[in-house]
Specification:
The structure is a single chain. This protein is 35% helix and 18% strand. It is of the alpha/beta class and 711 residues long. It has 4 domains: 154 residues, no CATH class; 198 residues, Nucleotidyltransferase, domain 5, CATH 3.30.420; 93 residues, Alpha-Beta Plaits (2-Layer Sandwich), CATH 3.30.70.330; 78 residues, RRM (RNA recognition motif) domain (Alpha-Beta Plaits, 2-Layer Sandwich), CATH 3.30.70. Helix 13 packs across helix 14 and helix 18 runs parallel beside helix 27. It is globular, with a radius of gyration of 32 Å. It comes from Psilopogon haemacephalus (coppersmith barbet). This is REXO5 exonuclease.
């Protein structure tokens, strides 16, 4: 999970599984960016990597996917915060696959020490950065970044009372500025006239980026050069224009509050052309300071800092509203993040890299932050020979490694014996905020692992899933039609098995579905309805394992992975994805349609999942689709319960070894063995530790939690 950042990847079906090599790609790029041969991962995309404050990897030693779903209710924080989940394919050497080749890692399962390193030293290069020299490294309010009167004079700003500004209009915005004063972005386009530079277009945007003014202006004198390549202005555009400079001056004066702060890039040129004086300005060409009086171009800053492409060559001239908005967002970024964060972007290095790339005729010298996900390579990614933890040390960043196992290469860490998860957490809370790359390992005690071997846990989870997928319907008449029952219940989703229960006074039918949504839909829509000539009840089996079924189903429905996702059943197997796309095209904000296939026959199933861009759009779609008939087939819908990841994992669980039926002991929770109650407590405690650690992280920290299993 990235705080305030976005990792995009497809989460339905096969895309939920990744290899350790792919995980390595992700961590290496998150930690190093484009240096040391690190590239965007082949299977997903990290946006704004240069803005990441750090990378934290939390390893839950000897715990697997099985533990996550067995103790799903206990992992309350983990499942609510971490939006993306993937199945990791097995690896013979987990630490080596995590750190890459070239490490001398030899895991020693008997070690009982805590590993740590000294916190990384502050990089001296930051202290030499002109931004740090000018503003210091502490965050400050916006008034600290407005130009002083001396700075305005030095940079040719119109000054009140100056002989050169005779006849200029004063905005009369004389109210004292505070750090909460409103910001406005301003930009003008000029043409060359007999008089000099005259305004031909003016744009003003507010702090939310809303365009308040975007007006063409008729120059007072004859135009000598329209500068169309840069201004976008043509003779034809100005022919019908009646607005004069005086009109714009009056409107701007009325629009600006008395404590307004104007933001622009080389704003002095705009104010000179407008023949206006304003006392409080932020100039982004000076804010992002460089040595020797040089200045970054707005186009470069927008791309390197905001990840935005502006002033594109395909467009005719600049868009002043776009430029005003870019300058405003740059100032907002600087104020919110502070000088130290801006200095860490290392803009000089990015500019040098861009120029080198341009000189070698690279068409994409500085990759914009918002580019699309790269297409997955058909070739398996090759691990680099060198460990990227070593690369971090070369750049002056010393990785932080904490845990009971011997995680680190020699020389990285020291050892401190007899440490508990609680001690590891305390150390992590102190040291992780100071480190750019941290690996924290929590583990269960040997007694927990010994008391709960994996085969036993696996059987309990499989048994509970089977019970949740199973419903009983009845009673029916002695001569009822089984095909009618199968047809009606099949409209809720794919049926795994259907058997008649004859031990009862009247016949009942036991139906086991393939997906959770189908079973729940049957309970919700067919209970106390007439099926095959009988008014029936529909219910799940009553076992100790299902006493918390309603709570579990509710939590699954609220799972962050199911946000904006609905389940649709009652489809005809002959329908293609294209047919469904056409049928559902009128649904607002539909983002993805996932139509599963039968693993054996390869045919489409009679259900699908729809994912919407907004949760409310999913709610609206449920209302629209309720009772909707498509080509004679009535659809049944509900909120999704099993995300693509869980759905795929359930299929694997059902087809794995062991009996399909059965249930946990019928004793209640209070009568469970002390060891199982202790294990639940310990899982809950681990979730609390992760919660505390997560909350201590800086914004824009990339955080990964791994359940590596025993292999």
């Amino acid at each position: 999970q990235e705080k305030s950042s976005c990792l995009s990847a497809a989460l339905f079906g096969e895309d939920c599984e990744i290899s350790h090599e792919q995980l390595y790609e992700l961590l290496k790029y998150a930690a190093l960016g484009k240096s040391h041969n690190a590239t965007q991962p082949s299977w997903c995309h990290i946006y704004h990597q240069c803005h990441l404050a750090g990378v934290v990897v939390i390893i839950l030693h000897e715990m697997s996917q099985l533990h996550f779903y067995k103790f799903y209710l206990q992992f309350k924080h983990l499942r609510r915060v971490f939006r993306h989940r993937f199945t990791l394919t097995p690896s013979a050497s987990f630490p080596a696959s995590l750190y890459g080749e070239g490490t001398n890692l030899k895991p020693q399962n008997t070690a009982q020490g805590i590993l740590f390193s000294s916190t990384p030293p502050k990089r001296s290069r930051l202290q030499r950065n002109p931004i740090i020299r000018k503003y210091g490294d502490k965050k400050q309010g916006l008034t600290s970044y407005t130009l002083t009167l001396e700075e305005q004079k030095k940079n040719d700003y119109p000054i009140k009372g100056s002989p050169e500004c005779k006849g200029y209009i004063y905005t009369e915005c004389d109210q004292q500025r505070t750090d909460s004063s409103p910001l406005f972005g301003l930009d003008c386009e000029m043409c060359l006239t007999a008089k000099g530079n005259e305004v031909t277009r003016v744009s003003l945007v507010d702090a939310q980026g809303q365009c308040l003014l975007n007006e063409l202006v008729k120059p007072e004198t004859t135009v000598v050069n329209y500068r169309t390549k840069y201004s976008g202005i043509t003779k034809k555009m100005l022919l019908p224009v009646k607005t004069k400079l005086a009109d714009i001056q009056t409107r701007l004066k009325k629009m600006l509050p008395h404590d307004a702060v104007l933001v622009g890039h080389s704003l002095n040129s705009d104010l000179q052309a407008l023949e206006m004086i304003h006392p409080s300005v932020i100039d982004t060409s000076l804010l992002f300071a460089r040595n020797a009086g040089r200045r970054f171009k707005l186009k470069f800053l927008a791309k390197a800092v905001l990840g935005k492409e502006i002033q594109c060559e395909e467009k005719l001239g600049h868009d002043p509203a776009e430029d005003a908005r870019a300058a405003l967002e740059l100032a907002q970024f600087f104020i919110e993040q502070g000088p130290a964060k801006v200095a860490e972007l290392n803009l000089e290095m990015l500019l040098t890299a861009e120029r080198l790339a341009e000189s070698s005729q690279n068409k994409a010298p500085l990759q914009p932050q918002g580019c699309r996900v790269q297409k997955q390579s058909t070739e398996p990614p090759q691990l680099p020979r060198a460990c990227f933890l070593d690369c971090l040390q070369v750049t002056g960043q010393k990785p932080l490694l904490l845990g009971r196992e011997d995680l680190a290469p020699s020389g990285l860490c020291q050892s401190n014996l007899n440490s508990s998860n609680k001690q590891i957490l305390q150390r992590a809370l102190e040291d992780v905020p100071q480190s750019t790359f941290s690996i924290i390992q929590f583990s269960l005690g040997p007694e927990d692992i010994a008391a709960h071997p994996l085969p036993g846990l696996c059987e309990k989870v499989r048994s509970k899933l089977t019970d949740m997928l199973t419903i009983y319907a009845g009673p029916f008449e002695e001569s009822f039609c089984l095909n009618s029952v199968k047809k009606e219940f099949g409209k809720c989703g794919p049926i795994q098995s259907l058997t008649v229960v004859t031990e009862t006074y009247q016949p009942y039918v036991c139906i086991q579905y393939e997906v959770l949504e189908a079973a729940q839909l049957a309970v919700e829509s067919l209970n106390e309805t007439e099926v095959a000539g009988s008014c029936i009840k529909v219910q799940r089996p009553v076992t100790a394992a299902l006493l918390d079924c309603e709570i579990l189903l509710k939590e699954l429905e609220l799972d962050i992975e199911n946000e904006g996702v609905i389940y649709v059943a009652g489809l005809k197997k002959s329908w293609t994805e294209a047919d469904l796309q056409e049928e559902f095209s009128q649904l607002k904000d539909l983002e993805t349609l996932f139509l599963p296939k039968d693993l054996q026959s390869g045919k489409h199933r009679n259900f699908c999942f729809l994912k919407f861009q907004k949760p409310q759009s999913a709610v609206d779609a449920l209302e629209v689709l309720s009772g909707w008939t498509v080509k004679g087939s009535k659809l049944r819908t509900r909120n999704a319960l099993a995300s693509g990841h869980l759905w795929r994992w359930m299929q694997q669980m059902k087809h794995s070894n062991g009996k399909q039926g059965g249930s946990i002991s019928d004793e209640k929770m209070e009568q469970l063995p002390d060891s199982e109650k202790d294990l639940r407590k310990n899982m809950k405690k681990l979730d609390q530790y992760i919660k505390k650690l997560y909350r201590s992280l800086q914004s824009n920290t990339f955080c990964v939690v791994l359940f590596p299993g025993v292999n």
